Each structure stands twice: as structure tokens, then as C-alpha cells.
Amino acid sequence: MTGPASPALVGRDAQLRALLQAIGGPPAVILVQGEAGIGKTRLVRAATERLRAERRTVLLGHCHQLREPFPYGPVLDALRHAASALPPVDRLNPVTGALRGHLPELAGQLPPAPTPPPLDDVRAERHRLFRAVHALLAAAAPATLVVEDLHWADDGTRDLLRFLTDQPPEGLALVVTFRREDLPVPGLPFGHAYRPQPGVRSEVISLAPLDVEDVRNLTGALLGGAPVPKGFAATLHERTAGVPFVIEEVVRSLLDDEGRLPGGAEGPEVLDRLPVPLLLREAMAEQLAGLSPAALRVVRAAAVLRVPADEPLLAAVSGEGADDEKEGAETPGAGLSEAVKAGVLLEQPDGQYGFRHALAQQAAYDAIPGPDRWPIHRRAMAALSTLDPAPLVQLAYHARRAGDLEAWRRHGGAAADHAAAVGDVPLAVEVLEAMLADPKLPPDARGPLALRLSRIAAVGLSYRRVVRLLRHLLSDDFLSRHVRGEARLNLGVLLSNQAGSIAEGRQEILTALPDLHDRPGLAARGLALLAMPAWGSEPLATHEAWMDEAEKLLAAVEDQDPELTAAVHANKVTLAMLVGSPDAFSLVSTLPVNHPSAAVRRQAARAYSNLCDAAMALGHYGAAEGFAARSRTIAEESGALYPVYLVEMSSVRLHWLTGRWEGLRERAVAAVEMTPEAPLLAVDARLVLGMLALARGEWEEAAEQLGEAGVRDCESGFLPVAVLASAGLIELHLARGALDAALSEAEWAVGRLRRKGIWVWGDQLVPQAVEALLKAGRSGEAAGLVAEFAAGVERRTAPSAHAALGLALGALAEHEGGHEEAAARYAEAKAAYEAMPRPHAAARAAEAEAGVRLALGARDEAARLVGGAAERYAALGATRDAARCRRLLREIGAAGPARRARKAGGGVLSPREAEVARLVALGHTNREIAEVLFLSRRTVDTHVARVLHKLGVRTRNDVREPRPDDRPGPEPTF
């Protein structure tokens, strides 16, 4: 049967125009969505054919349903065809050399691989690879990158595309197609929320089924322009639901050898033999009936393989060579040629052959009689097993379909392990989930697979799907007690770490302990996790009791597992550091950093990442930096993943504390967006975003972000961060004049810290709570709190807590009129903060000292202190704090006649105008701006008028947040 030519695009004129217009205005991100067979590929192909006719660069990548663990594969496959668009190698960004190992076809056109050699740090290496892809696309621009069937993409590809959409190269148009209903996360093609960036064109093109008239036009095109009666088109529309691919398959199945409808299209009765609703497999069966045996064998091989394949593989799987020596046998490749000419198979890029659509593949597969499928699957296993590397996922699939259960278990387990090893945990989970759900899986294999699933999940970053699956498995009674106990323990670890559901995780661990009573090593690991005091509402004594019990259990084990021993010891050292124990630093030296086992060293890497957090909470910032670096080093060489992420997230808070604020907000925003499945990892970033907003006077942003940092989550919130967030909320309420709200927050947070009994974490909370209590006239309660705090931090190695105690004592002395004592306390605190270093806190202490110096009549000293604080605030970007200091200078008359800043010309804003413009862009009223910047309403009115004039806009709604190049250098403080 000779099929009709592929018709022109029908019924998609508006969508094609929108697609081409968007591509023509890069940078652009175009999302093409629609159900299976709706014409997404046809639409994109029509657009790219026009682009290629205009000699424009088109890079095409495909995601496949049956995929192997190859992160970023679709994008890298597309980039292989960028050779003709690249400039000479000396004009390429050197970072593109990182792609040499991934794109051997372009190796001669790429710079040398960056030195030092590729990083072992998973996150850093991934970021460098992403930058290299970005730079290569920028060099190839103008270009269109198309990624088809994004619903089948691996997580790495989604992350890479998300990176590209955040800041696309200027000349790049990114086009992705996907089925919305088949996305792993409904409505999120990139896995995370996509927000169009300023200056980037964004277009969503949704394809709906064709109407009757479009069905008529499409059918006419399929029939070579023959007229199609309305009645025929209406019935065809009814039977196919207007899905273009199904229409094509139905029409093709009805054609005779001359390419015409039997009896013509004079009436719809020709469709009567088609069932309602249409079963595509019947249409495909009729189409296959006209093929020769050789062509049919090739088509069946392609249907069994499920993914595009080259000619040698198709020949091996089809058994094409088996009859080659017989007289009159067709030559090898003849069957493939016939299948391609008949339009059943299509030639795809790189000499691969496959079906036009997944629906066609499934229909062809369904048309193969059951007994005939098994030998084809067995031939597929034999052919695929010769490849290097072996496609383990495909081998497992074919082994199961061939009925070889032993090979299925072997290949499936190996596929899951390999996927986990390369970081594709979702694929590992998918493989294991399919095996566990299969009724043919022998009962004795279910337990080991469930355990393997729990172990893989415990070291990955994805968790939602695994949690659901493990809970389902644990609800059944097929697991042995030992397997159930360890699997439940791993579930508890997963919930406590990646999921951030500490309460649920702890409950799973407590439930697992009875099943582990004769496995003391594992029980000790569970108890050691419970012993971490930064989570939960239990007092410190309970955590210490859990740790003591864990050590006793471990000591009773004759043949100790080094990894379990290291896990428990890592938590013991972390506990000591978290509470500021005097022997904490000496315990750090006992960590097994040089142990021959990589698994043991991974526990050391985890310990150092935890120590970074613990040292930060105490004010040992230099030590925290060292712990972070040590964690990264050990993690790099031992293959740890989770500690690398922890250290990266913690560094956001560390940089805020130590005054490295440049670019910090962008880093924190990226951290929040990159951890949608691991909310625990985002609390540091939330805290930093809230505190940065507070320092700039962005009240709503500060309240939202600080509220998301675990301040109300008593069981799962990370307490050292949560109390910092509460301190920020108290300051926010006081700044807005909401004393009752400040007192309420202080009472809640201090009560929580009091129940825990770890006062070293109150370094920012206690001074803020004392300020609120003193403002409310509750000086007795303030003094009691300070005394309790002093007793709690005594003999603890916690520089930040001791500095905070000085601030609190200074506030009490100042309230009682003891200005000399207060000045001394504030000065001591300032010196302590300078030594850490913590510049923002040091500036606050200087402000406080200036206030009492002024009360003592030392105006010049007060002005020096306030001026220094203002300069430090301005350097950090704490605009509201700097404005507060400038107001104080004006009030004490120390500023003198202000030296005028360099006059801003044209549309360039002065520093003060830039501050005003930023607040206008955020939606603040003039009254609110006056409050934030400590200016008069009239002054703000003047500044707003100048901003509108310089920016050339008519209303404040048109004002955008200024960029750094919109304004001149800083205004002098005096």
C-alpha cells in the first residue's frame, strides 16, 4: 500500500504565526503543549523548516519514553549539530571546553578542557557544565533550540533548561513541546515554577483538536486535494475526536493500492467498519497488512525496541539476516526501505529509524501476536547486550517482556544502581517501583528490592514519590522484620533530611526501633539521628539521653560496621558543637577523615557539613568556613551528594552573617527555587532574604520570608535558624510600631528556646526580646531574661552569644541610666563582632554605643560612631539602617553642611533617588518611603518627582527597580 504524502499543516495558521513571531524575537521561551497526537511535532517541524530554508540555525533534541540514565542527553544531542554555527575556537568562551568530553563531534572546535581537571563536586561541576552550554548557545546565536517531549525528560535536563530560561542567551529561542497531563509535576514542564524574566519573550501555545472544517481540509490534503463531503468529515471528526494523528492513521488505513478511498468519499458509510471510539491499533493493523514479511519484521522490531534505532540494530532484532542465504531472499535493508517508503517508519536524525508518534509505536506493538513478541524481545536483549555501555533500562524491559525473570531482576537492579550512581534518582525509583509492582516478582525478591529502594532514596534529593512508595510497601506484611526495620529507618532518615518532615521522620524511626532490637548498630543510628537537638520540641536532656543510648548500643556490637559507627560518632561530635561544649573542637579531630572506606568518609563529610551549621550558630565563622571546605573536599573524593547541597545552602547564611552581601539576594532566590522538593534546605535562604529585606525597609518581603523560615514549626523547623527569624520579626514589628506583635513573637520564641534549653542559639533573639520588653516597661522581665541567658551561655564556647549578652546587659544599664556601663558593654560587643567578623552586628553595637555617648555629652565621639556605622551599612546595602544613621547625624547637628554628591545628569539617578525609585517600584507610598528612609514627606515628594522625570515615565507604576549603572557613586556621609 502506498501511503499519501504528509499533508501541509492544517488548522494551525494562528499557532504557526505565534511560534514564528516568538522565535523571531529572541531571547524567547516558547512552550508548545497538547495531548498525544495533537500535532505538536508537526507544528514545530513546519516552523523549523522555514527557519532552515532561511539558513538559520536549528538545534533539535528529543526525550524518549524508554530512557537510560544520561542527564542532559536531549540538549547535548542537539548541540552536536551546532558545528556550522560556531565561530573560530579562539573566539569561544573558555568554559565551553568543559563540553569536550560530552560532545566529541565538536572536540576540534572547542577550547581545551578547563583546568584544573573536571571537578568531583557534583554541584559545582554541574554549574560549570550549565555555564558551558549557555556560552556555546550564545556563540551559536541566533539559534533555535527545540526539545521535544519534555514530559519524558530526566531531572538533569529539566534543571539545565531551567538554568537557560533564567537568563537565556540574547539570540536564543528555546522551544519545548510536552503533554501537560504526562508531566511528572502537573503544570510544571521545567519541574519548577517558570517565571518569565524581564526582556525575555514568553509564549504558551496550546493545541486543541481540529474542528470539522479542519478535519475536512486535512483529509483532502491526505487524498491529494480530492474533495471531501461534509458528511464524511463530520463522521470522521466524531470517530477521531479531531486528533490530527488519529485522523491520518484512519485515512491511511482506508486507502486502496491506488491511494484512494474504496467507493470514494461520497458518504460516511466507508467509516462504518471503524469502531467507536476509534481503536488506533485496528487502523495500524490494516496498514501493516500491505507490507512484505521483511518489512513487517523490521516494523515489529522497531515497535518492540520502543526507541529509535539504527539499521544494524533493527536488522539484528528483526532477524533479517536469518533467511538471507535462501534463494530469492530480500537483501538486508530492503524491509527497512519498504517500511520507510510506506510511511510506517520515518528516518530520524543520526540515521535512526522510528515511528512518527508514540501512539503509532504502541499500535504496532499491539498488532504483534503475543507468541511472536517473546522471540523479538529475546533478540533485542541479545543485540543490546553487545553495546558498550549496555542500556540497562532497556535490557530490563526486554527481559521482563521475554519472560526471563532472572535477567529482569539482574538488569533492573543494575539499572537502578547505575541511575542512582549518576544522580538520576527518579529513574532509579521508577525502575524499582515498576519491579515491585509487578505480580511476577518472586516474593523472596520483594524485600531486597524494597531495601534497595530505601537505601537509594536516603542518599538522593528527590523524595515525594519514594515516600509514597515506601509507605505503601511498609503497609504490607510481606517484608521480613529485619527488612521492615531498616526500610522504615531509611524512610525516617529521608523524611528528616530531604523532606524536612522531622516529626514524621522521627516517628518512623521510633516505630522502626522495635524491629531493630537485635540489630543494635542500626538502632544506634536511628537514636543518633533523634539526638540532634536542632529539631523537635524535646529538651536537651532528652537528646543527650538518646545519644548516650546510641553509644551504649554501639559498644555492645562485637563486629561493628565502620559506616554505622562513623554515622553515630558524627552526630555525637555535631551535638557537642551545637551546644557549645568546651570539648567540641577536640572531638572534631576524632572524625574518620582518612578511613579507607568511602562510605565512612561520606559520614565524615556529613559531619563537617553539620559542624559548619553548628559553628555558625555559635559565632565561630572562621571555623565554619573551614568545616565547609573540609566537607566539600571529603565529599568530592568520596562521592557524597547531600553534604555538598547542605554546605551550599549554609554558605548563604554564613555570607549574610559575615557581611558578604553582594549578589547574595540572587543566590538566595536561586536556592529557594532550586529546592522545591527539599524545603529544609531552603530555610537558610528564606532567613537571608527576610533579613536583607528588613535591612532595606521592604516590610512585606521581610515578613513573608521570615515567616517561611520555620518560626512556627516546632517539630520540623531548624531551631537555630527559626530563632534568628523570630528575632528578625521582633525587629520588624518594632520598626513598624507594633509593640504588641513584637512582644507576642518574643514570648513565643523565647519560650521555645527555654524549653529546648540551648541558650547559645539566642544570640540575636535575646537582645531583640529585651528591647521589646523594655519598650513595654517590663524591665523586671527583661532583667530576668538576661540573667537566664547569662546562666545558659556560661562556660559555653559561643562568641556570638557572649557578644549578645553584652548588648543585652548594655540595654539594661542604659534603661536604668547607667550610661557609662552601657557604653562599655556596647563597645565590648562591637569589638567582639568585629573579631568574628560580623559587620552588620558591629554597626548595630556602634549605633547603640553612640546613643549613650550622646547622652553623656560626647557629641563628637557619638558622631564618629554613627558615621562609621552609616558607612558600613551603606557598603553592605542596608539602606534603611544607613538612612536611620543619617537622620541621627542630622539631629545631633554633626553632619554640618552636606557636601553635595556628583551631580547626576540626564537619566542617571543619585544614590538617594535610586533608593526612592527602588521603593516606588516595590509599591510603597510616599508616606511609607518617608518612614523607611527617615525623610520628610515633602523631601520624598521631591525625590519621586525627580525620579519620574529622569526615568522618562509618567506614573509611578512605570518605575522599575534601578540597576547599578543607573546611578553614580555613593553620596558622602558627611
Automatic annotation (TrEMBL):
Origin superkingdom: Bacteria
One of the protein's GO biological processes: regulation of DNA-templated transcription
PROSITE patterns per UniProt: HTH_LUXR_1, HTH_LUXR_2
Record-linked SUPFAM superfamilies: C-terminal effector domain of the bipartite response regulators, P-loop containing nucleoside triphosphate hydrolases
InterPro entries cross-referenced by the UniProt entry: AAA_16 (IPR041664), P-loop_NTPase (IPR027417), Sig_transdc_resp-reg_C-effctor (IPR016032), TPR-like_helical_dom_sf (IPR011990), Tscrpt_reg_LuxR_C (IPR000792), WH-like_DNA-bd_sf (IPR036388)
Coiled coil region boundaries: none
Keywords: ATP-binding, Nucleotide-binding
MF term (GO), any: DNA binding
Residue ranges constituting the HTH luxR-type domain according to the UniProt record: 902-966
Keyword ATP-binding: yes
GO cellular component: cytoplasm
Annotated signal peptide: none
UniProt cross-references to Pfam families, sorted A to Z: AAA_16, GerE
Name of the featured protein: Regulatory protein, luxR family
UniProt source species: Nonomuraea pusilla
